[in-house]
Amino acid sequence: MLRNLLRLHSRVGHALSPPIVCPRSQALKLPLPLLSVNSKYYSIITERKKFYDDVSISHGEGGMFEINLDQRKLKTPGGKLFTAPNEALAIAVANEWDTQKDTVKFYSMHMTTLCNTALDNPTFRSKDQIITAALKYLETDTICYRVEEPPSLVELQNNEWDPVLNWIEDRYNVVIGSSTNILGPEIPQATMDTFRQHLGSYNFWSLTGLEYVITQLKSVVLAFALIDKHVTVEQAVLLSRLEEEFQIGHWGNVEWAHDVDLYELRARTAAGALFVHFSSESSTVKRKLMQD
């Protein structure tokens, strides 16, 4: 059935266009929505009339990259200078600002918001605390909870979720399992220790993005499968919504509302996955040199 679901939804492309270059000067602090995946730090302002014309990237101290709106340097909601650790991530953020039209829609700027979260760390969490919070989702992982009826949904869950569950158990040499019990499967301590060690290999920025993906999919298993490129963003999202898609297939859905929710979740998940990959390594954009 997942294959049929995939045919119903076209893939969403993501283009990262280079920003326009302009001088850098004074700093600009903006009322951006401040997202922390386990907090309630949100600005009241979600939209604002566009107040700039040009977006540019400049080199900062320590190999960091800064974002400039006209001649003003962008700052985080916490008042820090907005910096990205590599050029690829800086271009992704600049693209979000550059593609805004007459109104700046802060709630749609997922890469910018994730950078703000990593820079400001509004809940003052350490790496260990982020890892612990992320692993909590394994205890209630979406694909570990199975229904006992109807038979058609039971079969669908087994057919679509078991291969991913088997993959992660083989990939990390762990045991997770599934259960129809409301308490879910009992996760062995050895499995938790293995995943904790794996998550510990990520830097603070990458963990921020990975936890965000986990919260969007409500699944550690699907998040790992996505980051490891075992599944696509589209597949991960549909697998996380398997029961909902099943119900819609039987009973129909509210016009446009379902598609909006689906595309929003896909956009957030894609942004989180890109954020993890961009912040996990030193990414430099290569440009061809023009020869006379």
TrEMBL record:
Gene3D superfamilies: ATP12 ATPase, ATP12-like. SUPFAM superfamilies: ATP12-like (SSF160909). It comes from the Eukaryota. It is a peripheral membrane protein. Keywords: Chaperone, Membrane, Mitochondrion, Mitochondrion inner membrane, Transit peptide. Its main location: mitochondrion. GO terms for cellular component: mitochondrial inner membrane. Plays a role in the assembly of the F1 component of the mitochondrial ATP synthase (ATPase). Belongs to the ATP12 family. PANTHER family: ATP SYNTHASE MITOCHONDRIAL F1 COMPLEX ASSEMBLY FACTOR 2 (PTHR21013:SF10), ATP SYNTHASE MITOCHONDRIAL F1 COMPLEX ASSEMBLY FACTOR 2/ATP12 PROTEIN, MITOCHONDRIAL PRECURSOR (PTHR21013). This is ATP synthase mitochondrial F1 complex assembly factor 2. The gene is LOC106609766.
